[in-house]
Design a protein that fits this description.
Number of strands: 16
CATH superfamily: Ribonuclease Z/Hydroxyacylglutathione hydrolase-like
Structural class: alpha/beta
CATH class: Alpha Beta
Distance between the termini: 10 Å
Strand order of the largest sheet: 1-15-14-13-12-11-10-9
CATH architecture: 4-Layer Sandwich
Largest sheet: 8 strands, mixed
Shape: globular
Number of helices: 10
Helix content: 25-40%
Length: 313
């Protein structure tokens, strides 16, 4: 594994963590292990700009891409991670807030524009099917023009939307078993966490949630838990700039996880490595890595990684 550059050491806590992560992943097809985890976008919420991209994660399992959430910038981040967009195969959505699925259709379209010819399966809660159809309706003029004018195949049959109507088994093939749990992200009733069990690693993504016992159960004994996090003092600074501060603050506090509760989840689940991501706020330079981890450390004494875009764990 590539060594962590000295300037990146502040992103990790604990001596063991220093050996777990590095930036600039290997090129596609040069996997160093069967299962690779790369954070594509680590900022929570729909706001764009700053150093972080919007929420998205990548698993490369025996060279096959599995993308979890598709916030704005996912296409660009996949290219930066060395993954050709025409190799898309599996997409997973924790829920359908815009910051988790705004680039769903465009990502598949960008894959098609660069030569995608194989089926792509998307998994997530309703209304994933109608959202998929709405995207193709929106792009109908362009797609049909390019089919006729450029000789491209029709991309619409390639994208298959699989709606999840209950937690539990999601999909399984010879490389991975994917299971889900309902988490608490009001007012959205169907918000999911996902667990990926492969031959060499078990990796869980919390999605957006408050403290959720169902997530503790799903993540029991996992090698890696990627968990969202909210830092209340930073939220208060953010809200000082917006007119709907009172309503937005209630939503953020009611539907996200404060550091102490992130630590409780990781400790109760007994995970080996906790990765902090989906930062709220995600673009406040005054919130340091130590601030993100201080509350977590009150309950979890394992390895903590403070996520950054394009960081591989």
């Amino acid at each position: 594994m590539s060594a962590v550059r000295p300037g990146r050491r502040r992103f990790l806590t604990g001596a063991a963590g220093l050996a777990l992560a590095h930036r600039v992943p290997l090129a596609f097809g040069q996997e160093k292990k069967n299962t690779r985890l790369i954070l594509l976008g680590t900022k929570g919420g729909p706001r764009v700009g700053g150093e972080r991209s919007n929420p998205s994660n990548l698993l490369l399992i025996n060279g096959v891409p599995y993308v979890v959430d598709c916030g704005a910038g996912t296409s660009r981040q996949l290219v930066a991670a060395g993954v050709p967009l025409n190799r898309l195969r599996y997409l997973f959505f924790t829920h359908l807030h815009s910051d988790h699925m705004l680039e769903y259709g465009p990502l598949v379209y960008n894959g098609w524009a660069t030569g995608l010819r194989t089926r792509v399966d998307a998994y997530g809660p309703p209304p994933l099917k109608s959202a998929t159809q709405a995207f193709w309706d929106y792009m109908k003029f362009d797609v049909e023009t390019r089919i006729a004018d450029e000789g491209r195949p029709d991309p619409r049959p390639l994208l298959v939307a699989n709606e999840l109507d209950a937690p539990g088994a999601v999909m399984q093939n010879e490389d991975v078993k994917v299971t889900s749990a309902l988490v608490s992200h009001p007012p959205i009733a169907r918000a999911y966490a996902y667990r990926f069990d492969t031959r060499d690693r078990s990796i869980v993504f919390s999605g957006d949630t408050t403290f959720a016992p169902s997530l503790v159960t799903l993540a029991k004994g996992a090698d890696v838990l990627v968990h969202e996090i909210l830092y209340p003092p930073g939220v208060d600074r953010l809200l000082a700039k917006v007119p709907n501060a009172a309503t937005l603050r209630k939503h953020l506090i009611d539907s996200h996880t404060v550091p102490e509760d992130v630590g409780r989840v990781a400790a109760q689940a007994g995970v080996k490595t906790l990765v902090l991501s989906h930062f709220v706020p995600g673009d406040d330079p005054a919130v340091t890595d130590q601030m993100w981890t201080e509350g977590v450390r009150k309950h979890f004494d394992g390895t903590i990684v403070v996520g950054k875009d394009l960081l591989e764990i």
